[in-house]
From TrEMBL:
Catalysed reaction equations from the record: heme b + (2E,6E)-farnesyl diphosphate + H2O = Fe(II)-heme o + diphosphate
Misc. remarks from the entry: Carbon 2 of the heme B porphyrin ring is defined according to the Fischer nomenclature.
Keywords: Cell membrane, Heme biosynthesis, Membrane, Transferase, Transmembrane, Transmembrane helix
Membrane topology of the entry: Multi-pass membrane protein
Cited HAMAP family: CyoE_CtaB (MF_00154)
The protein's name in its UniProt record: Protoheme IX farnesyltransferase
Subcellular compartments: Cell membrane
Catalytic class of the enzyme: transferase
TM stretches of this protein: 32-49, 55-77, 98-118, 124-145, 152-171, 177-200, 231-264, 284-305
Source organism per UniProt: Chelativorans salis
């Protein structure tokens, strides 16, 4: 695709921005967006109501756009630290592919569009939750917590845990205990997932000046925190079955997956401090992604089977 050139002034200097459609798609953080869409969809399926198919599609698209908007605003604000980290240096802003003003405008427009669409087509409770999620991720997490406290990912994880609640609310117009359990699973999963990453990306975070747990409290403390959260994740994964909105079969699979999470975290806990390969931490990070997808995939399948049998 031909490059699209625009003239802009970002407050510091004037230069040409050469951005393709792919650059703007990258601003949306597609991998993160896909997880948001998936968990929101699971929330919709598990909700005790039969949605209009068109409404469900529009709601999912609005949630996806809202997640992408938050990602774009995050990249706009974090362009300075993204340029210092190997994991993020290839993003559109550090590479100079997209201008800061373009990213800001893009994110703000998509934020307003997604919230208004969800409010008009579904309900304003879901739209309010989406607006709060964007605000929390961009302002509370990105602008405040991320650069100020090692608890950044603990508190900030609330933003990533809200999509299934939004999906549930889009269909029912309510927030219930069941939807909050889905929130809890993701909320508790977030710290060990990101702290595992932080263990083998400590240098990146140090260069960027981000106070991640390993940089501030040390490796041993971080490993203990990871293990403690892993136990909580395993327990929270059983709650849908315990509370009766998922089957015993789901509970059995969740127990196996949870034991796997605890086992991988135990390996991290016992990891030799001199092991610079960080093999157990990398393995936990990979497994944590599998765990969350698998838990919600089994919940989805369980909910669909329940609907068919109803």
């Amino acid at each position: 695709m031909a490059l699209v050139e625009r003239k802009y002034v970002d407050g510091r200097d004037g230069r040409l921005s050469e951005a393709t459609a792919g650059d703007f798609i990258a601003l949306l953080k597609p991998r993160v967006m896909s997880l948001v869409v998936f968990t929101a969809f699971v929330g919709m399926v598990l909700a005790p109501a039969t949605p209009n198919p068109l409404l469900a599609v529009i709601a999912i698209l609005a949630i996806a756009v809202g997640a992408g908007a938050a990602g774009a605003l995050n990249m706009w604000y974090d362009a300075d630290i993204d340029a210092k980290m190997t994991r993020t240096v290839g993003r559109p802003l550090p590479r100079g592919r997209v201008a800061p003003g373009e990213a800001l405008g893009f994110g703000l427009f998509l934020s307003a569009f997604s919230v208004m669409t969800l409010g008009l087509m579904a309900n304003w409770l879901a739209a309010s939750l989406l607006a709060f999620t964007i605000f929390f991720y961009v302002v509370i997490y990105t602008m405040w917590l991320k650069r100020s406290t090692p608890q950044n990912i603990v508190i900030g994880g609330a933003a990533g845990a809200l999509p299934p609640v939004i999906g549930w609310a889009a269909i029912t117009g309510t927030v219930t205990l069941e939807s909050l359990v889905l929130f809890l699973i993701i909320f508790l999963w977030t710290p060990p997932h990101f702290w595992a990453l932080a263990l083998f990306k400590t240098g990146d975070y140090a260069r960027a000046g981000i106070p991640m747990m390993p940089n501030v409290a040390g490796e041993e403390h971080t490993k203990r925190q990871i293990f403690a959260y892993a136990v909580l994740v395993a327990v929270s994964g059983l709650l849908p079955s315990v509370l009766g909105f998922a089957s015993i079969a789901y509970g059995a699979i969740a127990a196996v997956l949870g034991c796997g999470f605890v086992w991988y975290s135990w390996r991290v806990l016992k990891m030799d401090q001199g092991d610079r390969t960080m093999g157990p931490a990398k393995a936990l990070f990979a497994y944590s992604l599998v765990y969350l997808f698998a838990i919600f995939a089994v919940l989805l399948l369980d909910g669909m089977i329940s609907r068919i049998g109803a």
